[in-house]
Amino acid sequence: MQVAYKHPGEVGELKMSSFFKGIKTLNKLVYSQLNEILKMLDKKLDLKLYSIVLDNNDSCKEILRVKKTLSLNNNEAEISQDNLNELKYLFNELGLDVTFEEKEIRTEFINYCNQQKFLSSKNNSKIILNESQDNENLSNVEDVNKRSAYIHEDNSRILYMNSFNIKMNKVMGTVNYIIEIRNVDLETIDLFYNIPVLSFLRMVLDYYFIDYFVENQNHTLKIGKDNTTNKKYKEDSIQFNRRITRLYFGKLQEILLEKSNIKEIQLIFGNKLNNQYYINNLLEKIDDISNRTYEGDSPFGSILFLNSRVLKSDVNPVDYTIKFQSDDLIALNDAKLIRKLLELTNNEKDLYLISDHEMIYGLGKINWNQLNDSILFRIDFRGLSKYNIHLITTKETESSKGRLVFESGKKIYKTSKNLEVIDKNLIKLSFKSPIIGGEGYTSEKFIRLLKSEYFDEELKINEDVIEYLEQVVMNAREQKHGTMVVITDYETAVSELKTLKKQSILIESSEIIPEYIKFLTSIDGAIYFDTNGKCHAIGVILDGIAKENIGDASRGARYNSAYRYLEKLKELNKKCVIVIISEDGMVNLIPETVNEEKIYALFQQLIDLIKEDNEKAGPELNKIEGILMNNDNIDYHLFFKVAEIYRGKDSYEKAIEYYEKGLAVAGRNTIFVKNYRYLANLYFDYARETKTQKNHYYEKARKIFDKYIVKANENELNLHDYNNSAIVYKVLSDFEESKNSKQTLYQKALHDYSKAIEVSKPNAILFSNRSNLLKEMRMIKESLEDLIEAEFISSSEKYINGIMNLIKSNAELIDYCIQIILEKSDNKLKGDNLIKKLGEYGNSIREKNPEIAASFEKLY
Hints:
The chain is of the alpha+beta class. It has six domains: 8-232, no CATH class; 257-435, no CATH class; 453-590, YojJ-like (1 (3-Layer(aba) Sandwich), CATH 3.40.1700; 597-668, Serine Threonine Protein Phosphatase 5, Tetratricopeptide repeat; 672-778, Serine Threonine Protein Phosphatase 5, Tetratricopeptide repeat, CATH 1.25.40; 780-860, no CATH class.
């Protein structure tokens, strides 16, 4: 918050005290309203605010952190405001390596956020290649190379800054807010920074600051004596989001009308008030279509929107299947006819209705190699009053395959170009309410539920059955009209289906090929499985118990019958999981074993406590950790995120504890080489840092490298995998007393260094690492070769000194050294520093060893 005081001498101490109290009230109000608005868009979003108070000399008077904390005693959320004292603490908490002065905070930080410059923060995810060490004294290694720097950037957050001009107790000022939003999906982040004009989230934030509260003609927000602030339209968070939705569609219509090229809109960051957005009626037209049925069926299908100039040009990207006559185009407000025409579209065949901002031109496909940078939106209708809007772009990429040919005496590696079609979901609408981010259902959540304590010990499902049932659900989701998948134990399935016999189609219990599921679910009713993966019935109409607090009146019959059936089984003390797939593609999983919102809040609270380094927070931190570490029904990514925070603070043991917990929760079906790579490097870095049990942690790293990484598909391995594996083998050899065991480890290290060199571009560190190993193996000539190679790739005093030490210790190596350099005559300039050093050495020994000194003359 920036406060520019007027007549500071006339403002008494009492007024200023009241002013700062009013600031805290405003902070709390802004936080509460924004938090509610964001939760309506995606309940996973987590909000944090910072307000900065500067005096009229641009000097910091107060820096407040505003966040919500969950009380562990009564589960009630409280909004806390803590003073951070200095800007550097604020930037440190945000993980930013910046040094903006107080007077720069307004202009520079906004630009910083807009350009996404904060991604190059202190916790950079760039992987630094590890150097081997001749001994375990870390002081001999440059600090930048101490660690593998496998800390992952927090790539699930957005930073944003905006302000209010305010008037409070005759004091005028500007309140600057830095906003951090966490748990944001990557697609939303990408739009927010790379195509901000199409980011719905950015429009929500911008309009909150420019069009939510009542302002006077000077655009100043008036704070009353009781610290109240009036809303401009007296709307709640639902109404505000719906209003922004109308404006957003109005903006899309304006873009379609005025712009044709994506590059024209890519660098527009801020939103300004534009009354034309209210006048444009694209939202009403689309909404009207989405509320129409055709022969009783809900609307499904898609419309592509392009600029009218593009559609009317001689060279346009549309390949029409049918094209309406130019004087008989169909108006976009003819909802009844367009709903009928949607039946002709087919997403799987890329066949769509073609439109500009006001007319339907026909039915056709996109000729992708002619789309270029044209703006293309697609609206997918997903059922009654439900639709999504997407931005479609293309990107040219090099083919991974090619061939080597000789042309004009030169070797040329020829590759073809691929055109990647990129589909970005801009916003989802469900009964007029906007949604951003992914849906609540994930495969991981389904797997966690099947493996949770909800099923008792005798009903535990083996991993293969879990994987099969996950495939069943995935294929059931392709059922256009929706369905349900019921999973119980064998005895419950048999007894229940005897009761439901008259309203089911019973079959011999058997495993169904997953690809057939979408056909078997095309009739009404659920498909019924047991925990052995056997299907017992299709078309099952579920009966249950109706209770006052069971179900949701806003949802359909399928959803409510599933909840009633689950309640019936609960009263019989029987276990059941039901996957509900709605017509619009929404997936619900019941029972819900954890309160997701509470879990996300606890994790964010834990992360904040770790970052803040508050010594007094120890008991609270331990209590939260106890709750989370004893819960297996949590998204494993959350454990990984905490591990990364601890890793960033060099708390290796805690980082390892959380990452191993995440791996255990995830199970084999969701773990990849990258996950084991991260854990191996945690052990690796811990071993390099710790002064005790080094061999123990290196051995842990080796086992993970061997079991999960080196034995993986070779295409997934990179130079860092091979390099770090080699370093581990090399270090472990130092702890071996047996010559045979030592040689075995040396050979494994040599193999991995060589593979690292093979799969990478010429890299000096890799050759230097292998040189150190070869020296240990008494392969001195080979060691010298690698050091010279390293020096020619990237000249370094360290490499030159290593070469000089080798030849000084063994004069017979001088001729060999010179021979290698001469063979690299094409790269002589790269070896200039080495040659100069060799020349100086030759001159220094000329009197005592004229024959050896003469050898160096070959280099000139």
